[in-house]
From TrEMBL:
PANTHER family: L-THREONINE 3-DEHYDROGENASE. The keyword Nuclease does not apply. Keywords: Oxidoreductase. This is Molecular chaperone GroES. It comes from Nitratireductor indicus C115.
Length: 332
């Protein structure tokens, strides 16, 4: 099969590789659409030791089952593979499984390819009226859905009465904003330094996106969701959340710096780290996509997988305003 292979920092090659082989309980899925995630960009830059070269990246995928249970099914893929027998899995917190794997990290190759092997339990059926590009958004949108649920549980007031700030208007931030709206949040604002992304979020998606400079001063928001994860955004989050408020941290931009620990301690601010999603979160997000609760989701740019290296270059250079680029492995 053809695949886009990460070969080292800023290195991607579109080349022939061996077809994946589905193991016991797995299905082989022909990939129709696969999104580029921020974690793929981190790996591409050589910043993720969990993703050593050579490796097929990509984990936001949808396609058609071609071998295994239910051949011919249209599916979206939950890429998080867990043991389903440990305490975390048994309690419905599969994302905390000690032996968790995710496609695009060894030992599992990713979905920037024509085919991928995945456990059958990780597949969610996609109705005929939903195209594969939108179905592939289930993975990134589930991250925001999980974060919103986590923040909602910790708030001292109903989400409908909360003022919420989301940092970042990429796919994760936009997904969090859409999840907040779908779950009935009150005032929702996005903070985004990229003017093109601010305009795109406001004009195409209907979210109130503003420059970070507009959010100066302390304590304006009940809930702040950091969908970026750099020192600067953590500093912004810990300054703009109100006393007794909640910070939810999704982004993995950098590992250190930014938190105003003194203020967070003196003002009893709750900090929640969130990783991916549970199986329940993923299915809830897929259902919200299918029934339209997350909007039209028409803010995707598509490119053939063969042009994947160009897509990564465009993202790195800031030439992309759309929150998500989806690659098409079956397009020539």
């Amino acid at each position: 099969m053809k695949a886009l292979v990460y070969t080292g920092p800023k290195g991607l090659e579109y080349r022939e590789v061996a077809d994946p082989v589905a193991g016991a309980g797995e299905s082989l899925v022909r990939i129709e659409s696969v999104g580029i995630c921020g974690s793929d960009m981190h790996a591409y830059l050589g910043h993720d030791e969990r993703r050593p070269a050579p490796l097929i990246l990509g984990h936001e995928a949808a396609g058609i089952v071609v071998a295994g249970a239910g051949s011919g099914r249209r599916v979206t893929i939950n890429p998080l593979v867990t043991c389903m027998s440990c305490e975390a899995c048994r309690s419905g917190r599969e994302n905390l499984c000690a032996s968790r794997q995710i496609i695009s990290m060894p030992p599992r190759e990713g979905a920037f390819a024509q085919f991928v092997a995945i456990p059958e339990r990780n597949l969610v059926d996609v109705p005929d009226h939903v195209d594969f590009d939108r179905a592939a958004l289930a993975e990134p949108l589930a991250c925001g859905w999980h974060a919103v649920k986590s923040g909602e549980r910790a708030l001292d007031r109903p989400l409908s009465q909360a003022r919420v700030l989301v940092l970042g208007a990429g796919a994760i931030g936009v997904g969090a904003g859409l999840a907040l709206a779908a779950r009935g949040a009150g005032a929702i604002m996005l903070s985004e330094p990229h003017a093109g992304r601010r305009a795109f979020a406001a004009e195409r998606i209907g979210l109130d996106a503003r420059d970070p400079a507009e959010f100066s001063g302390e304590g304006a928001f009940d809930l702040v969701i950091d969908a970026v994860g750099f020192a600067a955004t953590r500093a912004q989050a810990s300054d703009t959340v109100r006393p007794g408020g909640v910070m939810v941290h999704i982004g993995l931009g950098s590992a250190e710096g930014g938190l105003n620990i003194r203020r967070m301690t003196l003002q009893e601010i709750t900090f929640i780290g969130t990783y991916t999603y549970t199986m329940e979160d993923f299915r809830e997000t897929a259902a919200a996509i299918f029934d339209g609760r997350l909007g039209a989701l028409d803010w995707i740019e598509t490119m053939p997988l063969a042009d994947g290296a160009q897509a990564f270059g465009d993202l790195l250079a800031g030439r992309v305003s759309a929150p998500k680029i989806v690659l098409k492995p079956q397009q020539v």
